[in-house]
Amino acid sequence: MTAHDPEFDPDDNFANSLEPGAGVDLESADTREALVWQLLLLINPGDEESALQQFSGYREALEAAGPDEVEPQWLLKDLIDWKSGFFVDDDDAVSFIDIITELAARWNVVIDWGVEDASDEDFLAEAEVPSLMAVATDRLREYGYSLWTWNTATGPSGEEGVHAGWMTLSSDDEALQEVAQALEIEVRPASDPF
Questions:
Q1: Phi, psi (degrees; rounded to nearest 5) at 175
Q2: pTM, rounded to two decimals
């Protein structure tokens, strides 16, 4: 085995799979897997065990679907939902608050939604997911975390009327954007939803 073999090794996080300055060849399944692994590490900061479990699930789903049939974010969507990502309907404020609260709790962060009781029926009747995403983005920034959203309307699996995304460390903002771009996933801060 040479230093350039793109074989999975969680200890080096695929560090040897991407040559500096070589560009990204998404036609290579090994490169795509390396990028997915990096994405999972970014959305599971400090929790390599969860990233590894999700990566194993991704590989199984990829094998079942075939590498050319599914974009990575769509294979990951169900594997990470309520664990390290969110996927909610545009009009489902209750689920969005619940899932973001649960995801933030991984780091002992409590989101202040701007009301005394975020489960209040009057508040929820008026709440809109894009506005809640902006609130969550601001609150998470205070603790050094970023909330991201990806464009669910693109690609063959595209869906309208839903919001999806992840949380990362704010110090990993640039890395997340680079990995997402290499995977051809359109992302932006959740304060500016698609």
A1: -60, -45
A2: 0.83
